[in-house]
Amino acid sequence: MATGSILLSPGAAILPDGSASNAAPAIQRVKSSASAPTPYFLQAAFDASTEEQCCWSLRMPADYSSAPVLKVQYKMTSATSGGVAFEARIAAVSDGDSQDVDAKAFAAANVGTATVPGTAGHLDEVSITMTNADSVAAGDFVVIYLNRDPAHASDTATGDAEV
Question: Each residue of 106-127: pLDDT tens digit?
């Protein structure tokens, strides 16, 4: 069985239309406070009280076999206690499917939770086992959905979660 990682960069995120029930995280360029040369990176800032979402589309690699796990690396803007919850979904379409891609819906949600680091800005990772993976297979056209789930009982941390 092959294993590997596919990087879903915030810069490649597909943001929703911004309607009231379809909010997007802030995509922002961040500069390290270190001295020159200074690293820059992109991050998606998910609010603590609004369900914000983004998507990525990709072709599932040819060596994919089964049991996808989405690993969400995040840091907190200000929180040093509490927890975060992220929700992830997959929509997968195989060559030859009778499904109209323009009418495709996501599979049921998968949720991962974590206790935030004790220091704001420290990196942490939430692993979300994609049990509901829409029968994804190697070569499929895939859309991955991610949001911070402020309505989840485990999401108690204040401030933005920066992915």
Answer: 999 999 999 999 999 999 999 9
Q: Which amino acid is at 75?
A: K
Report the C-alpha gap between 47 and 110 in whole angstroms: 19
Q: Indicate the range of 7-21, 56-70, 145-159 predicted with least confidence.
A: 7-21
CB 139 within 8 A of CB 94: yes
Which of 84, 90, 115 minimizes the C-alpha distance to 105? 90
Residue 154's alpha-carbon distances to 32, 61, 65, 88, in angstroms, are 30, 33, 31, 15
Closest CA to 8 of 153, 146, 150: 146
Is the Cβ–Cβ distance between 163 and 111 less than 8 Å? Answer: no
Hey, what amino acid is at 72? V
pTM of the predicted protein model:
0.91
96-111 pLDDT, tens per residue? 998 889 999 999 999 9
Q: Quick one: DSSP state of residue 22? A: S
**How many beta carbons lie within 10 A of that of residue 44, not counting itself?**
25
Do the Cβ atoms of 64 and 137 come closer than 8 Å? yes
Strands 26-31 and 110-115: unpaired
